[in-house]
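Hi support team,

I submitted a single chain yesterday and got back a structure, but I'm not sure I'm reading the token output correctly. Could someone confirm the output below corresponds to the sequence I sent? I've pasted both exactly as they appear in my results page.

Thanks,
R.
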Amino acid sequence: MAARDRNLSAWMAYVIVASFVSVGLIGALGYTMYSSSNLQTTAKEAVGRAAESDKKYREITQNLDFVKGMLGQRQFSEAEWETMKSSITGSADFDALQSQYAKDMTLFGPSEPFQNKNYPKLAEYLMRELRARNAQVDSAAKTAQDLNLKTESTVRSETDARKAAETKANDLDKQLAEARADFKNKIDDLIKTNTQTNETLQKKIAEHAKEKAKLESMVKVKTDDVTMLTERNLSLVRRIEVLENVDFQAVQGKVVDVEQGGAIVYVNIGSADDLRPGVRFSVLNPDVARLNEAKPKAHIEIVEILGSTQARARVLASDLKIPVLKGDVIYSPAWEKGRKVQFALMGKLDMNGDGSDDRNVIRNLIEQSGGVITEDLSPDGKSSGKMTAATRWLVVGEKFDVSNAEDLDPKIREFRSKYSDMESRARGLAVSQINLDKLLSWIRSSGDDRSMPLGNAARATDFIDKRPLKSSTGSVSEVYSKGVENGTFGRPLTSGEYVK
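Hi R., thanks for writing in. Yes, this is the structure output for that exact sequence:
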């Protein structure tokens, strides 16, 4: 009985303790739910503040990018430029800054690209315009001064001659008056003497006119010489500027992507660089040191302009052991950003060693790569065009190597004379010479079979698609169930054959 009472007391104590624990747990749960509600409210407020801060950060970053573009630290894209001219930021100070910037950029000429519209470029542009105006003013002042000096000299000379004639005439008149009374018989002699004097004066005037014409002719010759020297100096200055420019003998682009197992590549130049389809480039390793000594690993031809800084090209020829990779660089001596590279051709251009002149093919390759021919001296002595200070390359072919020019055929002597004259003019205009092999190593693929003559020299066989069609066993046209060879129906392709 006592043991049962103890068990009952223990059970009651357990129930009482469990009740207290349950009440405590319920209270703790309520407090936890209350704290969680407060934390959720605080978190929502923090997220809102973070979103507002992020919005302000993006606005500040965008405004900073615009300021960098204004200062020339970055270039505006066309979309950014249009957005900048019409956007309203909500900040009165920054909107006023944008408005003043757009107004200042109207100082540029209409042909100035929007990438150059920033304050450093504006200062350079205004300085160039100011120097050009000053040069024009100085030239006009110098011309006016020279004309004034010549006029003053002529007036003084004519005045002195007139005064001398008047003085002499007065002397003669005095002598005539004094001698008239005593020596009337000498009047005829005095008249004759006066007549002779007038004739002498007229001769002197005529001689003066001839001397003046001679001097004017000499001045014209000297002026032409000065003009030629000025043109040559300008050419040399442009060459120096090119040599100092980072684009001279430097890579002109980079391969940014490769597809179809290396058959198609994408480059980082496009319409903004005046690139067009058909231009060819050599592909080089990115670590090339000197371009004039580098050997191209492949050649590519631009087939499509995809944007201002992107174009697609096909690989003309490549060594499978040395594939074209992303990051490789490209170069062509026949192409430059923003202008056509000018070439001059001289002598026989035999590109395959068969002894015949391949001038038409060379012209086609140069023009296909973006260049233009300004002067051409063919082996028969015929010449066309004329080199200028803007001509960049003189492609030198074969010439006659003889010891006695007097024994040559007259046509050969004429060709040799024109050859020497063209070399001399090229040196005077600072035109760089390049041999045919070096030119072809840059603009022609060794395995390219698409270098075809154009115009009257075109051949119909150059345009035949010689690839066989893949065979099919289904219900299709006979054209596809049989192979096609050389443009005509041929035998069906056997098992395992495929289109190359």
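A quick pointer for reading it: The longest strand covers residues 298-307. Let us know if anything else looks off.

Best,
Support desk
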